[in-house]
Amino acid sequence: MIEAIGLSKFYGPFAAARDVTFSVGEGELVAFLGPNGAGKSTTMKMLTGYIAPSEGIGRIAGHNMMEDRIEGSRQLGYLPENGPLYPEMTPLAMLSFFAEARGMSTAQKKDRIEAVVEICDLSTVMYKPISKLSKGFKQRVGMSQALLHEPDVLIMDEPTAGLDPNQVRGVRKTMRRLSETKTILLSTHILQEVEAMASRVVLINEGRLVYDGSVDGLREHGGSDLDDAFHALTHDEAV
Ligand SMILES: Nc1ncnc2c1ncn2[C@@H]1O[C@H](COP(=O)(O)OP(=O)(O)OP(=O)(O)O)[C@@H](O)[C@H]1O
């Protein structure tokens, strides 16, 4: 359902991503890991068609996101790294706007907004401007927008970044629930998150793919410890 085929992105001589190839099959929840600046967001933006790859192809449900983005986007929900846009809108106004932009009928719009408000637990904040919401609620508003059109595929860029432990629990619970019916690629820095949710891990470092396999297989790279495995594969000393 999600295919990265030789994706590279060059900014001048700098490669933010280089020849990244992996795929996520129907119903899988795959964690996309890597240190700061490894190229996770860049790869996700190429997969979703937000930026054009310098080389390679991103496909969502079989659609090349450079040639067939509208079709691909019908099946894709994307939570970008910095949460939802339109800070001056309320969640209700934003969801209505996106429902209309996607051509939903009045009845469909009402049903879908009710459904995502329930899934993301937004009923208490529907009339507050998004800019005034806590980070956890902003993240949930972003998620509700990504889910509005009932996509089969979700690409979530660090959905739990900067949240307090209670908010993290809430978002993880939502993700687990969603993973029962959807194909999900989720970027994170939190290794416990990987253990708690993912069936597979794709790890990149300095723009290159360095591991693609099971969580247990990854652990073996660190003598059974995930933190050590992450360190061994990325040599990140930046602490
Ligand atoms: N528009 C751009 N112009 C130049 N360099 C860029 C641009 N966008 C990203 N980069 C660089 O590409 C590299 C990869 O960035 P990216 O945001 O994809 O990393 P990341 O793995 O998502 O990092 P983080 O975990 O910190 O969010 C970084 O060195 C970043 O500075």
From TrEMBL:
The entry's keywords: ATP-binding, Hydrolase, Nucleotide-binding, Transport
Catalytic class of the enzyme: hydrolase
SMART domains from the UniProt entry: AAA
Protein name from the UniProt record: Putative ABC transporter ATP-binding protein YxlF
Keyword Hydrolase: yes
Family note: Belongs to the ABC transporter superfamily.
Start and end residues of each ABC transporter domain: 2-231
